[in-house]
TrEMBL record:
A Pfam family of this chain: Ala_racemase_N
The name this protein goes by in its record: Alanine/ornithine racemase family PLP-dependent enzyme
The Alanine racemase N-terminal domain, residue ranges: 7-223
TM regions (residue ranges): none
Length: 355
C-alpha cells in the first residue's frame, strides 16, 4: 500500500547492537526511545534483542502497547497529574521535576500496592524540564524522604532538544554533582545517572563522557544511525532503516513560475519561485499533513523537491536519468522530524520487513 514506510528490522537490530556494545564498554546502559514509531511492539522488541536494557516513551498510549515486553519501561515526558494512575500502572520508572506530581504518583502507586521508581530531572541550561538549582532540589528531597511508595533511583537531564545546548564534560559533570547531592540527602546510591540522549553519543566516541554516567536515552542514533549534537552519522550503522515510498499520480511539463498575482499559500506563507522555464514536474500522493514542514531527501539525487500542499508533494524530474511514469514509486531518505510525523500519520502504511 502507498504511501508507506519500509522498516528494516535487521538494520535496526544492527544499529542497536553496534551502539549498545559501544556503550557497554563505558559501563552505560541504553534506554531505547520508542516514541518516533509510536511504540509498535515488533520494532521495540528489536531494541531489546540488540542490547537495550529499558524501553522509554513520552506517551502513555505507547507504553500501553509495550506492556507485554518483559523489561522496565520509562515514562520520558514529565507525567501529568491527571495521568498519575496510568503512569504508575504502565511505567516502572518516570522522569520528574515537580513535587506535586510525585505526591500524586505516590498516592496512585499506594492504591496499586506498588513502589514507583523516579528519575529526578535537572536543567543544565537547555531550559526545558528540570530543577534549576541545588536549593530547589534539596527542598524537594526533604519531602521525598517521607513518600513510602516512591523510590528515587536516578538523576537525569535533557540537552539539545529545546535550547540546542551541546552536552560536554562540564555540564554532564554538573549532573554527576547533582546526583551526589541526592545520594547525600537521601543516604542512597543512585542506580541511574542518565546523561541525556543521542546528542551525547559524540562524547562517547571521543571517550570524554564523565565516569559516573551510566545511562543514555537513545532514539535517533538507534533509528537513523546519527548522533544529534552535530548531525554526524555513526560509524558502522545504517541511516536507511526507515525509507518513505510515495507514488506518482501526475506528470506534466509546466512553467516553473505560477501565472497570476501571488498571495498566501494554504499554510499562510507567501511562496517565492525561481523562473527555470518549462520543467517536467511530478506529483506524489503525500503531503504536509503527513510530513509536516520536515525535509525529505529523494534517493534519486537527480530529483528536486519543489514544494508541497496538504496532500500533494511536487517534485522536478526533468534531469533524471530514469524515465518515470504515472504509478511509479519514488523512495526518500528521512530525518528524525519527518520520521516522527510519518509514523504518527494514519495515512502512511507501516511496512515492516525483516531484511
Amino acid at each position: 500500500m502507498n504511501p508507506r514506510i519500509d522498516i528494516s528490522l535487521n538494520k535496526l537490530k544492527h544499529n542497536t547492537k553496534v551502539i549498545s556494545d559501544m556503550c557497554k564498554e563505558k559501563g552505560i546502559q541504553i534506554a531505547a526511545v520508542t516514541k518516533a514509531f509510536c511504540g509498535i511492539p515488533e520494532i521495540a522488541q528489536v531494541f531489546i534483542d540488540g542490547g537495550a536494557k529499558y524501553l522509554a516513551d513520552s506517551r502513555i498510549e505507547n507504553l500501553k502497547k509495550l506492556n507485554n515486553i518483559p523489561v522496565e519501561k520509562i515514562m520520558l515526558r514529565l507525567p501529568m497529574i491527571s495521568q498519575a494512575k496510568e503512569t504508575a500502572e504502565y511505567a516502572d520508572i518516570s522522569l520528574n521535576s515537580e513535587i506535586e506530581t510525585i505526591i500524586a504518583l505516590n498516592d496512585a502507586t499506594e492504591k496499586l500496592n506498588k513502589v514507583h521508581k523516579i528519575i529526578l530531572m535537572v536543567d543544565l541550561g537547555d531550559l526545558r524540564e528540570g530543577f534549576f538549582d541545588n536549593k530547589e532540589l534539596e527542598s524537594a528531597l526533604l519531602i521525598l524522604k517521607d513518600l513510602k511508595n516512591i523510590k528515587v533511583v536516578g538523576i537525569g537531564s535533557n540537552l539539545t532538544c529545546y535550547g540546542g545546548v551541546i552536552p560536554n564534560k562540564t555540564n554532564l559533570g554538573k549532573l554527576v554533582e547533582y546526583g551526589e547531592t541526592i545520594e547525600r540527602v537521601l543516604d542512597t546510591t543512585l542506580e541511574i545517572i542518565s546523561g541525556g540522549n543521542s546528542s551525547s553519543i559524540y562524547l562517547l566516541e571521543e571517550d570524554r563522557i564523565p565516569e559516573r554516567i551510566n545511562n543514555l536515552r537513545l532514539g535517533e542514533s538507534l533509528l537513523l544511525g546519527r548522533e544529534s549534537a552535530y548531525g554526524n552519522f555513526i560509524t558502522n550503522t545504517y541511516n536507511d532503516a526507515f525509507r518513505l515510498v510515495a507514488e506518482i499520480i501526475e506528470i506534466k511539463n509546466k512553467p516553473s513560475m505560477p501565472i497570476g498575482e501571488i498571495g498566501m499559500d494554504a499554510f499562510g506563507n507567501t511562496p517565492i519561485f525561481e523562473d527555470k522555464g518549462i520543467r517536467k514536474r511530478a506529483i506524489l500522493a503525500i503531503g504536509r499533513q503527513d510530513i509536516g514542514s520536515n525535509s525529505i531527501e529523494p534517493v534519486d539525487e537527480k530529483i528536486e523537491v519543489i514544494g508541497a500542499s496538504s496532500d500533494h508533494l511536487i517534485i522536478d524530474i526533468t534531469d533524471c536519468n530514469i524515465s518515470y511514469k504515472v504509478g511509479d514509486e519514488i523512495t526518500f531518505n528521512i530525518g528524525y522530524g519527518a520520521l516522527l510525523s510519518l509514523m504518527t500519520s494514519e495515512y502512511i502504511h507501516k511496512n515492516i520487513i525483516s531484511y
